[in-house]
Amino acid sequence: MKNSGKNILVVEDEEHLAKGIKYNLEAEGYSATVVGDGVTALKLFEDKSNSIDLLILDLMLPGMSGYAVCDALRAASNDIPILILSARTLTEDRSRGFDVGANQYLNKPFELEELLSRVNNLLTFATRRNTRIEREANIRSFEFADAKIDFDAHQVTVDGKQIRLTNLELKLLRYFISNEGRVISRAELLEHVWRMPGNLATRAPDQFIRRLRKYFEPDTARPQHFLTIRDAGYRFVGKPRSVDKD
Questions:
Q1: What average pLDDT does range 36-65 have in this prediction?
Q2: Alpha-carbon separation of residue 181 from 125, 184, 191, 240 (angstroms)
Q3: How confident is the model at residue 125 (pLDDT cuts 50, 70, 90)?
Q4: What pLDDT was estimated at residue 245?
Q5: What are 200-221's pLDDT values in tens digits?
Q6: Nearest CA to 236 among 215, 212, 214?
Q7: Running DSSP on this structure, what letter comes out for residue 229?
Q8: Neighbours of 157 (CB within 10 A)
Q9: Residue 80, SS3 per DSSP
Q10: Is the confidence at residue 5, as pLDDT, over 80?
Q11: What pLDDT, on a 0 to 100 scale, did the predictor assign at position 3?
């Protein structure tokens, strides 16, 4: 089957829902494992003999929330695609999910076709990103203006003062640096940083770029490094020759 070899971990404590997801994933040719709590899920990731290609994660879990599971994986530099399934529908819940490193967020109840489409998209984008990851891995540290970034140590200082960036903010920063000087569309950022479909209607890239400007630009109203290119996207300039108009 076309999806054979792809292993999906489902972390869901509602047994009937977990069984339904597992059944339909296996009907599509995936291998699926189900656990009911976050602690057990993390133990599976600690066992290097387990090969997991995608995580479907509930938020409201016994003992350890889905947020904590996601945060723990990203803190361990695990870049596995994560799809959150949750009955939480508030904007702040979705934002928190993305902040701790989730790639997509799907509200319960959901349509099966949409779930399977998102699974397929996440796995497809994960395969395509291999070459990009190899390129970005060569960037271990970077300096521009008053900023010093150590990606290996997850340490960032601006004008000698240490600032704390989320894993997703660091990921976006690294992507900009590895593509310095090139105009990057919002769709490209969604696909390669968030691992979402490029045509998804979301303002997440804009919000995160505003955060990077707040961290690194002396004057956020007149950015010199993180530039908006009208009707095209964004461009990172480490050493601007002159102040570009935003």
A1: 90
A2: 24, 9, 19, 10
A3: confident
A4: 43
A5: 778 889 999 999 999 999 999 9
A6: 212
A7: E
A8: 14
A9: coil
A10: no
A11: 66
Q: Give the residue from 64, 60, 68 showing the smallest Cα distance to 85.
A: 60
* pLDDT (mean) for 10-34: 94
Beta strands in the chain (DSSP E): 7-11, 31-35, 54-58, 82-86, 104-107, 141-144, 147-150, 155-158, 161-163, 226-229, 233-236
Residues in the chain: 246
What strand order describes the sheet that includes 141-144? 141-144, 147-150, 155-158, 161-163
Q: Which residue has the tokens 């593509």?
A: 179
In which residue ranges of the chain is CATH 3.40.50.2300 found? 7-134
CATH number 1.10.10.10 given to 7-134: no
Residues of the chain with CATH 1.10.10.10: 140-236
What is the C-alpha separation between 245 and 221, in angstroms, rounded?
9
Percent with pLDDT over 90 in the chain: 57
- Looking from the CA of 155 toward its CB, the CA atoms found within 13 Å total 9
pLDDT at 229 over 50: yes
- We find that the CATH architecture of domain 140-236 is Orthogonal Bundle (1.10)
Strand residue runs (E) in 17-86: 31-35, 54-58, 82-86
Distance between CA atoms of residues 186 and 207, nearest Å: 12
